[in-house]
Specification:
nine-stranded mixed beta sheet; about 35% helix; five-stranded mixed beta sheet
Length: about 350
């Protein structure tokens, strides 16, 4: 199984306030880091397409390649200037506030054409507007065109058409005023979601969208997380939508499941919640692919129980992520399945919550 992650690496400064004391650390992050490492431990061969600055530590890429078998040889480009950087502050309640230190570089279609190949899963996970919704559509059009050229007699339902697509709302939603991280105007985001949702129709793709509850409300207005998930799926045409609430779990919407609560699983300890959403998305998509391969069907052909189990696998994978500082603590599929089977799941909360605190544009 081949998975490609597109987005920029990030030099994270992580600040955690706990029991009245503040600690800080520096780690290499970004959705491509957490997602590709989660995929690697899952038994998948990940590839990363990213732009870094001259300040990015080359030894980190060497470690990804040598220790984790992540392909960073063809899709990484180094530019003058600095790598994307955020300051992430977690308060006593676990709420996260972001400050942009460096925006980083744009990823263009030229960065993708020679290195994207023909993946089974494709993750579009921007963190600082390094590409937009039109870029996603252009990449999917490129892949569909190549698939048609390589398999001119394939039927419309052929597995040769396009990969399964995972999208994270965060990088499309964020906009910036200096170092302040804000949300885009609602009408702008509604248009972007319309474009992203069109990937399913125009490229024949199975598209999975992940968003935090706070992000969903910034786009749709005040709404409970299950209703957010349903609205995003039915209004914009996504195949599956997951609305997460950090340690409280989340809600999934799909044709097979309807709207259903997805628990998280109690970790041994909570050290750092950075990258949990990225790990969840990777685990969800890859488990759906695994189940479809086992059942010799498409993901669309999976039962509701199968889709919900995949979401639980993603959630359990994320529960290991919080146990360690920075991008570490990832576990194999067998260990993740063990936690789903034997771990302690959360109960559906009476009140929803969100992890990241965003400031709307005024």
């Amino acid at each position: 199984m081949d998975a490609v992650f597109i987005g920029n690496f990030v030099n994270d400064v992580i600040v955690i306030t706990k029991d009245g004391r503040e600690t800080s650390s520096v780690a290499t992050g970004g959705s491509v880091t957490y997602g590709s490492l989660a995929a690697s431990t899952y038994g998948v061969t990940p590839r990363v397409i990213s732009i870094v600055g001259s300040d990015f530590p080359p030894e980190f890429l060497t470690r990804l390649k040598d220790d984790h078998k992540i392909d960073v040889t063809s899709g990484i480009r180094t530019c003058d200037g600095k790598t994307t950087s955020y300051r992430l502050h977690y308060d006593e309640a676990g709420k996260r506030t972001l400050k942009l230190e460096e925006k980083g570089h744009e990823i263009t279609i030229a960065d993708v054409e020679g290195s994207i190949g023909t993946p089974d899963a494709l993750f579009f996970v921007p963190v600082a507007a390094e590409f937009d919704d039109q870029f996603v559509l252009d990449v999917m059009t490129l892949l569909a065109s190549r698939a048609k050229s390589n398999h001119p007699h394939a039927s419309s339902s052929s597995s040769h058409r396009t990969p399964v697509v995972g999208l994270d709302v965060q990088g499309f939603l964020r906009t910036f005023e200096g170092k302040r991280v804000l949300t885009r105007d609602r009408e702008v985001m509604l248009h972007k979601l319309k474009v992203l949702g069109s990937v399913a129709a125009s490229a024949g793709a199975f598209v999975i969208l992940k968003t935090e509850h706070g992000e969903a409300e910034a786009i749709l207005g005040p709404m409970d997380p299950a209703s957010c998930a349903k609205e995003l799926r039915t209004r914009f045409g996504f195949s599956i939508v997951s609305v997460t609430m950090g340690g409280l779990g989340g809600y999934l919407s799909s044709e097979a499941t309807g709207e259903v609560y997805v628990p998280t699983f109690t970790p041994r300890t909570v050290t750092d919640e950075t990258g949990c959403g990225d790990t969840f998305l990777a685990g969800l998509v890859l488990e759906l692919l695994h189940q479809a391969q086992e059942a010799k069907c498409t993901i669309a052909g999976l039962s509701g129980d199968g889709v919900l189990y995949a979401a639980k696998m993603g959630s359990a994978a994320a529960s290991f992520c919080v146990e360690s500082l920075g991008p570490s603590g990832f576990q194999s599929r067998d260990r993740v399945a063990e936690r789903v089977r034997d771990g302690t799941p959360t109960q559906e909360p009476a009140r929803p919550s969100s992890v990241t605190v965003y400031k709307p544009r005024k």
